[in-house]
Amino acid sequence: MEFISKIFFKLISPFLYFLHKRAGYTKDAFERKSGNFHSPNFSNSRVIMFHGVSVGEINAVEKLVKKTKENFPNAKIVVTTGTNTGQETAHKKLGEIADFITYFPFDTPYCVTKFLNKIRPTEVLMMETEIWPSFSAQCKKRGIKLYIINGRISDRTFNSYKKLKFFFKPLLQNYTGIFTQSSEDNNKFLLLGANPLTTKRMNNLKFDITAPNVDIDLKANGRIFLAASTHSGEDKIVYEVYKKLKTKHNDLKFIIAPRHLTRLEEVKSIIGAYVLRSQNETLTDNDVMILDTMGELNKIFAFADFAFIGGSFNKTGGHNPLEAVIFGKPVISGPSVHNFKDIYAIIQKAGAGFVVKTPEELYSTADKLLSDKEFYTKAAKSSIEVFKEQQGALDFVINVLKG
User: Domain locations in the chain?
Assistant: First the structure.
């Protein structure tokens, strides 16, 4: 079987290499996905492996990897990714924590065998929805504990998967445990054939953060609309929405925080009349402030009444809304939120966040938050409640590893 698998992989390698080269992968990345990398010396060690496909998954698992190293200092930590951007993020954030970072292998028996023979993991934790036939089968055969953590399945994916339940049910039996973000995700895995004894809700790792210490002051005598992490093209959208809101809500103040301060002059030219945070001016006698300081945005959310999260009216994919939600502040985003789609699914369902398609919808949603006191109070309360409900995922996984 191994010989046939090797021949098959050799035959399809040119096609796979072409696809990877087209997607921007280097030859080195292709080789490492094929299992051709220098073998790390992990003999007689406990090896805990984490896999996250791309940037979002690596960001989500960062804190868990660090806490795992703290709890199991003698264990070797391996991190794998499926994309170039994921690999870059892993090296940047976990390069000093992980003992080895590489690409996840192609899911062929030949490549998986080479990979597992070199890494020799004792436990493998796969982020979200990673179901690989060859990899999971070989892990079970070798007695490697294989887990899905932060598990989720979108409605669209679930509708496709359930038609192939006959295929997924035996695959899911290869997993030692499947731990999901929500009860709905838990039920989806069960309906696909997962073991009910080892499929549990763990909540979402991305919610395991703490609010920063707000050691700053922001004087203002009105309600505050914060536009956070805006990108080129969004500044004008949110500023025009603010001006329209201001005609109806005279006490409204506006803070805009461009994602990159290299764009400061561009933002200034759009806003016109403003004060700068760096000059210690206040919103007591002024209506508009540009946040031009580094490292303060996550604290400024504490002073806002609601926030627009940028990178969502272009193709960036949005930024983390939890920096606002953790303070009980409702958030509004444009339609592009794929970098945090799981978080938005949770906060939208809770009524703590709103995803709008157009600037007109941004205005109408913001206007309702400002005009309807009951609606705003409910959204703010939901922000706090959803955060509390989702806490505990980090400790859940550490307890699993403790056995």
Answer: 21-209+391-402, 224-389
The answer to whether the CB of 306 falls within 8 A of the CB of 367 is: no
Quote the CA–CA distance of 284 and 154 in Å, as a whole number: 45
Beta strands in 90-244 (DSSP E): 100-103, 123-127, 145-151, 177-180, 199-201, 224-230
* Whether pLDDT at 325 is above 90: yes
CATH for 21-209+391-402 is 3.40.50.11720
224-389: what fold?
A: Rossmann fold (3.40.50)
List the alpha helices (DSSP H) in 162-263: 165-172, 183-191, 234-248
Per-residue pLDDT reduced to its tens digit, 241-278: 999 999 999 999 999 999 999 999 999 999 989 999 99
Its sign, for the CA torsion 347, 349, 352, 358, is positive
Rounded CA separation 138/32 (Å): 19
Q: Is the pLDDT of residue 87 over 60?
A: yes
Strand order through the sheet with 177-180 = 100-103, 76-81, 47-51, 123-127, 145-151, 177-180, 199-201
**Active-site residue identified among 31, 57, 88, 234:** 57
Could you confirm whether 123 is annotated as catalytic? no
**For 89-107, how does the pLDDT look when each residue is reduced to its tens digit (9 = 90+)?**
999 999 999 999 999 998 9
* Angle, vertex CA 386, rays to CA 338 and CA 210, nearest 5: 85
Q: How confident is the model at residue 24 (pLDDT cuts 50, 70, 90)?
A: low
Which residue from 48, 53, 82, 81 is spatially nearest to 65, judged by alpha carbons?
48
